[in-house]
Write a structure and sequence with these properties.
Elements: E1 8-14, H1 21-31, E2 38-43, H2 58-64, H3 71-81, E3 84-89, H4 92-101, E4 107-112, H5 120-126, E5 132-136, H6 142-154, E6 160-164, H7 179-188, E7 192-196, H8 205-210, E8 219-225, E9 238-240, H9 241-258, H10 267-272, E10 281-284, E11 299-302
Parallel strand pairs: 1-2, 1-8, 2-3, 3-4, 4-5, 5-6, 6-7, 7-8, 8-9
Antiparallel strand pairs: 10-11
Helix pairs in contact: 1-3, 4-5
């Protein structure tokens, strides 16, 4: 996954396809028209490695899981789109499959869902992946996250990304807890993303989806559908193609407005802070004769048409020094027309004494 200053957008398909490969191919085709970086798919090959026998969800999961061989068609098409692939592996067999083909396809990351965050068999196999490993940390304690991170690092795997967010069909705003993103980032020093699962029909969805950008989050994930009106699996969190486009534009705008964390001014800021044309400059309040000592009464702060080499705080380089030439009213006061001798700053003359 790119680690530059741009936002990395992931469009998640999850099980929205309900096992229909043709539906998934059409969804990928529509999603790929967006300015996203990657499409995320859920893989589940071995149900017995994921849930117990006779689990109430077993029949549904078996029906909606796309078999191993069918994924080659999807991945081949992903090559054509030019988009990256992110694969969430729910079981060990699917994760081993991904490791076996990782050099054949543009797979940018594998993800371990928070339901298997501390599954050491998944963690051990994930450590063999050559690129990023995303750890879903929704609903996980600090100790659980630390266990997974420490386990991977012990396996010499340091390409770790934490993903905040969870699916609550849909997730309530009050449960998101954006502050946890900052806490996790500070605690682990790892890249962290946000996977939004709030109600796509809510008017605040777009804003909520991009807010983490203001805290420096560079990875955003959203469920996306091309059948917004259909009640398919995971539809509770899936936004339309149009809405996803709006989210991408909004997030990029916020990211651009953040700027950088250095103290360098942009050209616009330099112009705005220019002493003289913008900030008031030190000028002669009245005509000053050559040889006169400059006093507070001789100085004014005014906006001018020319830039001043002195800042407003440089008044102490002028006060108490001698005019080197006759200085007309409103002329900029500089080291060219005033003799400069270093003096320790003294604020006393600017305050009225209370003494009688």
């Amino acid at each position: 996954m790119d680690k530059n200053n741009s936002i990395y957008f992931i469009a998640e398909t999850a099980f929205h396809h309900e096992g229909d490969v043709e539906f998934l191919m059409n969804l990928v085709k529509d999603i790929s028209c967006l300015e996203i970086n990657a499409v995320k798919f859920h893989l589940l090959f071995d149900l017995e490695d994921y849930i117990i026998k006779n689990h109430p969800a077993e029949e549904v999961l078996r029906k909606i899981s796309i078999p191993e061989q069918s994924w080659f068609q999807v991945f081949d098409y992903m090559k054509e789109t030019g988009k990256k692939i992110v694969l969430l592996c729910n079981d060990l067999k699917s994760l081993k499959f991904v490791n076996s083909i990782q050099n054949q396809y543009p797979i940018d990351a594998v993800e371990l869902h928070s339901t298997g965050l501390n599954d050491i068999f998944l963690l051990e196999e994930a450590a063999n992946f050559k690129k990023d490993i995303i750890l879903g940390v929704g609903g996980s304690t600090f100790d659980e996250v630390k266990f997974a991170v420490d386990f991977l690092k012990a396996q010499k795997q340091n390409n770790i990304v934490l993903m905040h967010g969870f699916q609550s069909y849909p997730t309530n705003y009050n449960d998101i807890n954006f502050k946890r993103i900052e806490m996790l980032s500070n605690a682990f020093g790892l890249p962290i993303g946000y996977a939004d699962h709030t109600d796509p029909k809510d008017s605040n969805n777009e804003v909520i989806s991009v807010l983490p950008v203001m805290n420096g989050v560079k990875i955003l994930e959203k469920h996306v559908t091309n059948k917004f009106s259909e009640q398919r699996i995971d539809a509770q969190a899936a936004v339309s193609i149009e809405t996803m486009g709006n989210i991408i534009r909004l997030a990029n705008t916020l990211n651009q407005s953040l700027g950088s964390d250095n103290l360098n001014f942009s050209e616009a800021e330099l112009n705005y802070g220019n002493t003289g044309p913008m900030k008031k400059a030190l000028v002669a309040r009245k005509p000053i004769k050559k040889g006169e000592i400059i006093t507070k009464e001789d100085i004014a702060f005014k906006r001018t048409t020319a830039s001043s080499p002195l800042l407003q705080k440089d008044i102490y380089k002028i006060l108490g020094n001698i005019a080197l030439e006759d200085i007309a009213q409103d002329t900029l006061l500089t080291n060219m027309n005033v003799e400069y001798a270093f003096k320790k700053q003294n604020f006393d003359q600017f305050f009225v004494s209370d003494k009688n």
